[in-house]
Amino acid sequence: MTAPFFKFGYFNDEVSLIVAFILGLAFGFLFERGGFGSGRMLAAQFYFTDMRVFKVMFTAITTAMIGLFYLSWIGFLDLSLVYFGETFLLPQVVGGLILGVGFVVGGYCPGTSSVAISTGKIDAIVYAIGGLFGIFVFGEAFPYISDFFYSTPMGRVTLPELFGIDHGIILLLVIMLAIAGFTAADWGEKFMASKKEGK
Amino acid sequence: MLKVYAALPPRKRIGILAIILGILAAIIGAPENSTTASVNIKELSMTAGKNVNTVTVQELSNWIIQGKMDYRLVDLRTEADYEEYNIPSSECVSMSSLTNSELMRNEKIILYSDDDIIASQAWFILKSDGYHSVSILKKGMEAWKNEIVFPSCNCGEHSTAELKQLHDKKAEIAKFFGGAMQAVDGSNSAVKKDLPKLKAPKKVVLKTSRKKPAREGC
Amino acid sequence: MNVKEWFHHHDHDNVRDGELTPMHYTNPYLIGLLLGIVLLATFVIMGRGMGASGVLSTVVAVTVEKISPESVQGNNFYMGYLGDGESNPLKNWLMFEVIGIVIGGFISGAIAGRNKFVIEKGPRFTNKKRLLFAFIGGSLMGFGAKMARGCTSGQGLTGGALLSVGGWAFMMAVFAGAYAFAYFVRRQWT
Fold this sequence. Notes:
The complex is a heterotrimer of chains A (about 200), B (about 220) and C (about 190).
Chain A: H1 13-33, H2 39-44, H3 52-73, E1 87-88, H4 89-106, H5 110-118, H6 122-149, E2 153-155, H7 159-163, H8 167-198
Antiparallel strand pairs in A: 1-2
Chain B: H1 2-7, H2 10-28, H3 41-47, E1 54-55, H4 57-66, E2 71-75, H5 79-84, E3 90-92, E4 108-112, H6 117-128, E5 133-137, H7 140-149, E6 152-153, H8 161-176, E7 182-183
Parallel strand pairs in B: 1-5, 2-3, 2-4, 4-5, 6-7
Chain C: H1 3-7, E1 15-16, E2 19-20, H2 28-46, H3 53-67, H4 76-82, H5 93-112, H6 127-147, H7 152-161, H8 165-182, H9 186-189
Antiparallel strand pairs in C: 1-2
Helix pairs in contact in C: 3-4, 7-8
């Protein structure tokens, strides 16, 4: 197994920071190029007029997922060395709901707000400051909510492990789900566009 | 069929490619639990037998004394033997559970058994499974007992200060690990010397614990 | 090409008369594909995925520690972002990655002529209200992201690609929460 390169010591910590920067450049460029630097564009997802957020995210997830599977299969990538966070089901779902509300109210998420700030969106700057405030509130409240924060631990569990289905079958299901989702998204956009015309 | 494929818009083409990859994946199953490995026999035959793959008991004892914890020391013997005595900082892993153990492919692994044979077999298994750094403790437990914990003392031959220093160093190391210098008696007894029972080394305090991994979340 | 033109606001902006005309953004599927490849490269090179919210947490933790060091002792949350005291907590992988994201976004916007100081909002909303909502939304985001141990980049993209149960549950919750609340802020955007 050759990859992940950093974990096998092919380069040191200092170089990894440069790698981080270069990867970040690519992420940021693609985010902005895809329209994620615009709060209006991001929010349009939740009014069904432009399903860009769903399309980009799900395509990216599916692509990377397929890559991880096949690189592991040919013995190039050691999946056990890739960092995998632990699941704490309830706080993650609650946190997701809260973040979702924050997303549609504020118009951004942390990654997209970064590209929005650098392309001049003042509301994104305010959003990021709000983010710092929200994290500060969390930090101060942490001693009181840490029980909830650590509740429902499930460890490093993957969907295949949860459902007892092979990794490859889950892959196929996700791909089919993605295609179905994209078809629906495209149809939904057309429907909303025609509704607007009809008005 | 290829003509039909080429005629489709790019979006549909990628979609079909994705479905094919998905079906192939469903057939493959779970790559991370695969029970087969491909071995680069040329590379293996080049590296096997080289010193990079062995660690002497002297080196290991120095590392333990210095508190260097950058390796995983694996004891391949039975649980009972492990409970009776094991080299400090070692963990017990049986040969059959090597493939689904906690050992990571980027760690420095040192294997030992009673002698070299079992350790060598385990070395081959791990190297075939993609582990990068696997070493064998030369002569295993035998060497550890005979050279570190119960070294023999050529007590008459302390002619030079240097030899005396070596002798004292050996005795000190032996004491660190709960053993003692063994006087060599004149009679060349063919009977295997019965070494004193070694208790599991509670006395040996390992100086440093393993380095905490850097935070990798988001 | 005149470099000044890169930074000048073009006529064919993405927002005109309150209408969204995303003609100058690349096809989302292509972007997703490329993003997935970069994400895969991150896994292969670093053995980890991407992230973004961790940077905000680090900034908060470092600031709180500077202002009142006693309050971070014993608070596991802050301590987790301050490291072991040996190295500068700001010199971490995520920080450099996010700096790259910021600059990468700037470059893309510059090339397309989209860089412009503006407040994004719908036509029926005032600037002041928009900024207020942005702050509130940001606060909710910060709180929620820490509760969920990540944001849409970290838990969503990274956790999603790794098929993490928490990541997928989180993503579904994000979409659910956003769709559920979209009705109440529709005046801000549409």
